[in-house]
């Protein structure tokens, strides 16, 4: 028996000693294996630390109670007080972990912390009253003090905590992961039973079992990061932990990505002999790299994607070491597959890169811009790369915030407009609304943020915000000025959304704007593919009075027949056609024929990019109905359209 190793004890503490050892082992694993650190991990970590201290104190209490003549009552009471505080913190951490398991509860973490601290306070108060009253244990002389009352009071606290935890779990069961519900409703009732057993039999101390087991289960299920049994590598969660540690400790390091595209498309651990050789190659590469460079830590993301952290100050010497690692990877792979390609991108420890997600996004950005899929690619990011990425990342985060908030009055989305000249009336009758993004008092170029908005699925919300702002300004303009309409650009992806027509019409209705006052612009590439959803949205809106422009005509691949088939009211000729037609007689003839064909089909024409007298003369001579360009008007804040539209008589 474990108790016999300590000496002659009046109580059996085998369970306490066993779970002291278990807690110690798990705590070492927590420190050494870089577990997954979620917001609730801190409660499991500190809870496990106290799980080491509490059994130790309980064994010490039993030992002192068994030799009370040597240690005395005061010493025993001091250790009991220490145990009360430690046990209360264990129950606090268990309760807080449980409270933060449902994701929605994490926003209320502060409230739950206050509630749990109140429980701890009353538990300590309840026990301290017993200490001062002298009812925590009894001693009537002899060698042994009776600590049954102490054990029972600890059991009472544990039962209150376990019961409250089960009641809480019942109230938030729909928000809790299934695996968490299973564990709670299996473990906590057993805990209550064990505490009842402990209450009826105080000679065998088993309290440690009731708090160590839940802590260990939570760690195994939600935070442990097992190693790959063959490669000996950990996964993304361990990578995040080491990254966060190095940032916190201000360690200099490189973070790199080694990607073998062909391995990602195959099961290299499968039964195929060639794939098996590929797996052996990765194993040999990892073993060699780890043994040669102790500061190198490799993490497996997938069969062909590996991330490494090399803890070293940036220098030419260390750059060469990383280059050698890339050389070795190329050499080993070429031995088994001449066509295999590797991608290796390394980031020095830039101060602004504060998370693995940021590092991964920067690597992806570099690969997209520089990668030739037929060649090996290796690259060490520079400060210029980091500056460009930080600008893009800042814009991306702002766009995501705009998308999530979905505020139709968002001040970051700024509405400009470019007046459009009508040739027949020799006046400005329409305008094109132009989206701008204002961040920290600076206007971001549309060429920079529009592609990002499309990649991140933020473009639709931006369009809705633009439409709302245009409608709001349009109602003010209508009071005093005469004009036909204002056009708004739409993304190609938006017109495949099933509910697009309803969303647009709802905004028009909200601002009491006539549909004929709004025109939507689609690029030629948007209509190149025959999409039923696009066609349906266009016809639904046209039936309500919304007209359409085809933008950038001449840059896409759509056939003239398809353009005429769709309900476009105006075709906007791209400026490249204008510039080429002036210098090329053959192109001039093609453009003239297109204008004639469109007009015969009842479609008006508009030319963009008119910036000189030559452009203007050509546009008027060739019969364009509308002219847009800097020669007539530059983009202005939409409220400044008053300077161009005529006042009502």
UniProtKB/TrEMBL annotation:
GO terms for molecular function: cyclic-guanylate-specific phosphodiesterase activity. InterPro entries: Cyclic-di-GMP_PDE-like, EAL_dom, EAL_sf. SUPFAM superfamilies: EAL domain-like. Keywords: Membrane, Transmembrane, Transmembrane helix. Residues 397-649 form the EAL domain. The chain crosses the membrane at residues 15-33, 45-64, 70-92, 112-132, 147-172, 179-198, 204-222. It comes from the Bacteria. Coiled coil: none annotated. PANTHER family: CYCLIC DI-GMP PHOSPHODIESTERASE PDEF (PTHR33121), SIGNALING PROTEIN YKOW (PTHR33121:SF70). This is EAL domain-containing protein. It comes from Butyrivibrio fibrisolvens. The lineage of its organism: Bacteria, Bacillati, Bacillota, Clostridia, Lachnospirales.
């Amino acid at each position: 028996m474990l108790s016999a190793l300590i000496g002659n004890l009046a109580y059996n503490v085998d369970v306490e000693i066993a779970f002291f050892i278990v807690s110690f082992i798990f705590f070492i694993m927590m420190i050494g294996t870089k577990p997954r650190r979620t917001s609730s991990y801190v409660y499991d970590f500190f809870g496990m630390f106290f799980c080491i201290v509490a059994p130790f104190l309980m064994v010490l209490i039993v030992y002192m109670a068994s030799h009370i003549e040597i240690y005395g009552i005061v010493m025993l009471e001091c250790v009991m007080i220490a145990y009360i505080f430690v046990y209360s913190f264990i129950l606090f951490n268990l309760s807080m972990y449980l409270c933060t398991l449902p994701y929605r509860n994490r926003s209320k973490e502060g409230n739950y912390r206050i509630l749990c601290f109140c429980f701890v306070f009353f538990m300590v108060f309840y026990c301290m009253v017993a200490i001062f009253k002298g009812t925590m244990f009894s001693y009537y002389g002899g060698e042994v003090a009776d600590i049954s009352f102490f054990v029972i009071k600890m059991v009472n606290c544990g039962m209150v905590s376990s019961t409250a935890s089960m009641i809480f779990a019942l109230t938030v069961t729909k928000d809790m992961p299934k695996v968490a519900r299973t564990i709670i409703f299996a473990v906590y009732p057993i805990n209550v039973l064990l505490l009842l057993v402990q209450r009826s039999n105080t000679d065998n101390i088993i309290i440690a079992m009731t708090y160590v087991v839940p802590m260990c289960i939570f760690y195994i299920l939600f935070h442990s990061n097992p190693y790959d049994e063959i490669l000996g590598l950990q996964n993304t969660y361990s990578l995040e932990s080491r990254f966060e540690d190095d940032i916190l400790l201000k360690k200099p390091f490189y973070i790199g990505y080694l990607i073998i595209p062909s391995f990602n498309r195959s099961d290299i651990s499968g039964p195929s002999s060639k794939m098996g050789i590929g797996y052996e190659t990765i194993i040999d590469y990892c073993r060699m790299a780890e043994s040669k460079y102790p500061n190198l830590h490799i993490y497996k993301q997938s069969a062909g994607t590996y991330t490494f952290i090399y803890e070293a100050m940036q220098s030419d010497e260390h750059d060469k070491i990383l280059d050698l690692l890339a050389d070795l990877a190329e050499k080993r792979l070429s031995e088994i597959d001449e066509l295999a390609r590797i991608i290796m991108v390394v980031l020095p420890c830039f101060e602004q890169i504060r998370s693995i997600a940021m590092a991964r996004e920067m690597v992806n950005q570099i690969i997209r811009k520089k990668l030739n899929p037929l060649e090996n690619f290796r690259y060490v990011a520079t400060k210029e790369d980091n500056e460009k990425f930080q600008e893009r990342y800042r814009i991306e985060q702002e766009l995501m915030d705009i998308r999530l908030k979905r505020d139709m009055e968002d001040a970051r989305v700024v509405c400009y407009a470019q007046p459009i000249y009508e040739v027949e009336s020799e006046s400005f009758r329409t305008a094109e609304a132009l989206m701008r993004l204002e961040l920290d008092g600076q206007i971001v170029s549309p060429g920079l943020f529009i592609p990002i908005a499309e990649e991140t699925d933020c473009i639709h919300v931006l369009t809705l915000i633009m439409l709302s702002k245009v409608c709001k300004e349009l109602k003010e303009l209508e009071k005093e000025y005469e004009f036909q309409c204002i056009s708004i650009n739409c993304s190609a992806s938006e017109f495949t959304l099933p509910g697009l027509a309803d969303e647009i019409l709802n905004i028009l209705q909200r601002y009491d704007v006539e549909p004929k006052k709004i025109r939507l612009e689609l690029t030629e590439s948007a209509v190149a593919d025959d999409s039923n959803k696009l066609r349906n949205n266009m016809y639904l809106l046209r039936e309500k009075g919304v007209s359409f422009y085809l933008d950038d005509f001449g840059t896409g691949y759509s056939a003239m027949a398809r353009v005429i088939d769709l309900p476009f009211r105006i075709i906007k000729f791209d400026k490249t056609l204008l510039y080429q037609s002036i210098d090329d007689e053959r192109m001039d003839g093609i453009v003239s024929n297109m204008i004639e064909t469109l007009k015969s089909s009842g479609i008006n024409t508009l030319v963009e990019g008119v910036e000189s007298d030559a452009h203007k003369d050509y546009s008027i001579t060739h019969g364009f109905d509308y002219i847009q360009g800097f020669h007539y008007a530059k983009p202005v804040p939409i409220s400044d359209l008053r300077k161009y539209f005529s006042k009502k008589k």
